[in-house]
TrEMBL record, chain A:
Keywords carried by this UniProt record: ATP-binding, Cell inner membrane, Cell membrane, Membrane, Nucleotide-binding, Translocase, Transport
GO biological process: putrescine transport
Organism: Rhodovulum bhavnagarense
Segments forming domain ABC transporter: 22-252
Catalytic activity: ATP + H2O + polyamine-[polyamine-binding protein]Side 1 = ADP + phosphate + polyamineSide 2 + [polyamine-binding protein]Side 1
GO cellular component: a single term: ATP-binding cassette (ABC) transporter complex
Gene: potA
Family, similarity comment: Belongs to the ABC transporter superfamily. Spermidine/putrescine importer (TC 3.A.1.11.1) family.
This protein's name: Spermidine/putrescine import ATP-binding protein PotA
Gene3D superfamilies, per database record: 2.40.50.100, Nucleic acid-binding proteins, P-loop containing nucleotide triphosphate hydrolases
SMART domains associated with the record: AAA
Assembly with partners or alone: The complex is composed of two ATP-binding proteins (PotA), two transmembrane proteins (PotB and PotC) and a solute-binding protein (PotD).
TrEMBL record, chain B:
GO CC entries: plasma membrane
PROSITE patterns to which the protein is assigned, alphabetical: ABC_TM1
Family as reported in the entry's similarity comment: Belongs to the binding-protein-dependent transport system permease family. CysTW subfamily.
Domain of life from the UniProt record: Bacteria
Record field: transmembrane: 6-28, 86-106, 112-132, 167-188, 209-234, 265-286
Domain ABC transmembrane type-1, chain residue ranges per copy: 80-286
Primary location group: membrane
Location within or outside the cell: Cell membrane
Source species taxonomy: Bacteria, Pseudomonadati, Pseudomonadota, Alphaproteobacteria, Rhodobacterales
The protein's name in its UniProt record: Putrescine transport system permease protein
Keywords: Cell membrane, Membrane, Transmembrane, Transmembrane helix, Transport
């Protein structure tokens, strides 16, 4: 799940001189008494592929609809390309939206659906034909140009919706759960297609998704939302490896959370006492912690080694008994009950065939990890 | 085919046969007969007691005389034309009034819609005749409308609305409005609101979104509504005779007069048969509209 590209290639958010394409400035949205978006500040930069992630009802769609102009913020300002969007109707914003329901016009052919926005612009016939054909080619829909939306498959419809929203070459494209209706294979194909299109057109994408794997795959940055607030905004790799809160760590990927109290050690290290009479967990951290502070130690399953003998080269080693094994083909997840009573999952790649598996249920094993494998969280 | 399915299919066909085809054949038979002073007032009568001879004699006596008569007397085809014109114009007027109402209901907050629909249907709870009569109380020369206009000083003399074709339009629009509103509303209500938003997002103003997306998509509802108004309006009898006075020529009224005033059942039947002939075309078009809509809904 780690990000393949090196981070120094594209990171406008790290450059203070860079002007953001979108700026949310203290934006609050209320529906009656209910606060859907709560005093939110956020900058999104040109050419970004920005993913919004969060549980249902946390305000993702509301945020998008405010960008598109279908809802007005109750408080605060939204800037797009340096222009305050207050009072600017959706049809005059440099933004297009791909709707979750696709919202294709059923009475128009695929071709006319894609041409719809261009016609409104008053583009001349020849240029429009060229542009629509280009969009058809990009979304591999040439063969279906003459069909009506109800005569094509769900995946094709979704590509029409995408082509239609891209046709006007907007500065900013909003995608609200665009791939929700697709099966896994088609979804992955489309994700790569989206990234490809984004690279070719240079459009800035903001995508809402329920699927954290999708966010990790496509996004330059990920924002995790909860109850109308941003909990953390960072690159996928950063959000995975260095979540700032237990909520984020838990929301993105699998994680073992062990609570304990801190005993500072030398260097940037702490010892975390998590159970009576057991050696503490030693972990590296930049945080300044006071002795006795309650913290959560978070470690991803794939960072934990399962072995028969104690692995002495790793700082942390605990003994336990395998309670359950989830076989996933390429990897297996071992659920191990520690002597202290904690249940910890550890993931190992299956280098041997299933019948030659090293460990089985009820085996006594050692779990070990290095100082830097996990992180110490205070909230 | 299993017996269960057969019964299921048979029931509607028997229904149609008993309530539509048989009465139609009877009317057709009367239209081919001659008028007579008798009970019922026409000959020939089918006399099965004389066997095969009776049947052939009966068929030999049937002829198209009444239809020839209808074609020769210009009263009839003028009435047909006038009915067609009145039905078309009032259908158009009903559409112009009904569409905005249907659109308004579809746009109203979700919790209001059942009440608003209820209000549309509410007039059906009182008798149709009473409702048409009460229009007389409103539009006649001494009626509420003229009284109000005179007392407010806007006019000095009452406006003649009663006994004009305008009064017939008013009556038809009023009576058939729900038949226009309901199918249009159901077409609009089915429509996903995000379609309008998508159109606006792609650069339409609200007005353009209406003309380019909402109106074309509500077309099946508009067509259904127009037929539901046009078909009964064409044969309408009560409204023209109560509100239209002697000036308004409508085939329904002619038919009634032939039947009850002249007691000329054969001519009245011939009028009815031709009326049905005229209606077959719009009914078939209506049917096709419904089928096509079902296809795209799938
Ligand atoms: N028009 C509205 N009136 C009242 N409440 C609303 C309205 N629109 C959204 N809400 C509320 O605001 C909150 C956020 O809604 P939103 O649609 O933004 O959620 P979401 O994050 O997109 O959720 P999901 O992932 O399920 O799509 C929800 O609790 C919702 O009930
Ligand atoms: Mg949503």
């Amino acid at each position: 799940m780690a990000q393949p590209q090196p981070q120094n290639v594209f990171a406008p958010w790290a450059d203070p001189a860079e002007k953001p394409l979108i700026r949310f400035e203290g934006v609050t949205k209320r529906f009656g008494d209910f606060v859907a978006v709560d005093d939110l500040n956020l900058d999104i930069y040109e050419r970004e592929f920005f993913a919004l992630l969060g549980p249902s009802g946390c305000g993702k769609t509301t945020l998008m609809r405010m960008l598109a102009g279908f809802e007005n913020p109750s408080e605060g300002n939204i800037w797009i390309g340096g222009q305050n969007m207050k009072g600017i109707p959706p049809n005059r914003r440099p933004v297009n939206m791909m709707f979750q329901s696709y919202a294709l016009f059923p009475h128009l052919t695929v071709w006319d659906n894609i041409a719809f926005g261009l016609r409104r612009e008053g583009m001349d016939k020849d240029r429009m034909r060229v542009r629509v054909d280009e969009m058809l080619r990009l979304s591999r829909l040439e063969k279906f140009a003459g069909r009506k939306p109800h005569q094509i498959s769900g995946g094709q419809r979704q590509r029409v919706a995408l082509a239609r929203s891209l046709a006007k070459a907007p500065k900013l494209l909003l995608l609200d759960e665009p791939l929700g209706a697709l099966d896994k294979k088609l979804r992955q194909d489309t994700q790569f297609e989206l990234m490809d299109i984004q690279e070719k057109t240079g459009t800035t994408f903001v995508i809402v998704t329920h699927d954290q794997e999708e966010a990790m795959t496509v996004a330059s940055r990920v924002a995790v939302m909860d109850h109308g607030k941003l909990v953390q905004v960072a690159t996928p790799a950063h959000i995975y490896e260095a979540p700032e809160t237990v909520y984020v760590a838990d929301f993105i990927g699998d994680v073992n959370i062990i609570e304990g109290t801190v005993i500072p050690a030398q260097g940037n290290r702490v010892d975390i006492t998590y159970a009576e009479g057991k050696p503490p967990i030693r972990a590296a951290t930049d945080k300044t912690l006071v002795p006795g502070q309650r913290v959560s130690f978070a470690v991803r399953p794939e960072k934990i080694l399962v072995s028969r003998e104690m692995a002495t080269e790793r700082t942390n080693a605990v003994k336990g008994r395998i309670e359950d094994i989830a076989y996933l083909g390429n990897i297996s997840t071992y659920h191990v009950r520690l002597d202290s009573g904690h249940l910890v999952s550890a993931q190992m790649t299956n280098r041997n065939r299933l019948e030659r598996r090293e460990f089985t249920w009820e085996d006594e094993v050692w779990l070990s990890w290095t100082e830097t494998a996990g992180i110490v969280l205070t909230e | 085919m299993n017996p269960r399915r057969l019964t299921l299919i048979l029931v509607p066909y028997l229904w149609l046969l008993a309530l539509f085809l048989v009465p139609f054949l009877i009317v057709l038979k009367i239209s081919l007969s001659d008028t007579a002073i008798a009970i019922p007032p026409y000959i020939p009568k089918l006399d099965l007691s004389t066997g095969w001879h009776g049947i052939t004699a009966f068929f030999a006596d049937l002829d198209f005389e009444n239809f020839v008569f209808l074609a020769e007397d210009d009263l009839y085809w003028k009435s047909y034309l006038s009915s067609l014109r009145i039905a078309s114009i009032s259908t158009l007027l009903t559409l112009l009034v009904g569409y905005p109402i249907a659109y308004g209901i579809a746009q109203a907050p979700e919790e209001w819609r059942p009440t608003l629909l209820m209000l549309v249907i509410l007039p059906f709870w009182t008798s149709f005749l009473i409702r048409v009569y009460s229009w007389i109380g409103i539009i006649s020369n001494e009626g509420l409308l003229n009284q109000a206009l005179i007392s407010s000083g806007l006019i000095a003399e009452p406006i003649q609305i009663m006994n004009t074709t305008q009064a017939v339009y008013l009556g038809i629009v009023y009576t058939y409005l729900p038949f226009m509103i309901l199918p249009i509303y159901s077409a609009l209500d089915k429509m996903d609101v995000s379609l309008t938003e998508a159109a606006i997002d792609l650069g339409c103003s609200r007005r353009q979104a209406f003309w380019l997306v909402i109106l074309p998509l509500s077309r099946p509802g508009v067509i259904a509504g127009c037929f539901l108004v046009f078909i009964p309006a064409l044969g309408e009898f009560v409204i023209p005779s109560l509100l239209g006075g002697s000036d308004t020529l409508m085939i329904g009224k002619v038919l009634w007069e032939e039947f009850f005033s002249n007691r000329d059942w054969p001519v009245a039947s011939a009028v009815a048969v031709i009326l049905l002939g005229i209606l077959v075309l719009p009914i078939m078009l209506f049917q096709r509209n419904q089928e096509r809509q079902q296809e795209t809904d799938r």
